[in-house]
Amino acid sequence: MNDKYKIHVLSNGVKLYLYPSDKLKRFYVKYVINYGSDGKWFNFKYNNKKYTVEPGVAHFLEHLLGEHSKNGNIYTNFSKRNYGRNGVTTYNKTFYYFEGIRNIKKSIKELIEAVDIPLFTKEDVENSRKAILEECKIDKNDYFYTMCGLLDRNIYNSYEKIHKSLSVIGNPETTNKIDYDMLKLCYDAFYYDENKYLLIAGNFDENKMIKFVESIYENIPKHEKKVKEISYDLLPVRKRKEVIKMNITNPYVGLTFKEELPLNYDKTLIQAYLMIYLYAKFSFSNKFINKLLDKKIIEKKISDECSRNENILLFTFKAYTKHKDKYIKELIKELKKNDITKKKFDLFKKAIISDIAFGRDNLYNDFKEFQDIIDYDYLVDELIFIKNLNYKDFIKFTRVLKFNNYIEVVIEPNN
Question: Which residue among 35, 245, 268, 284 is the one 20 to 30 A from 370 at the CA level?
Answer without folding.
Answer: 284
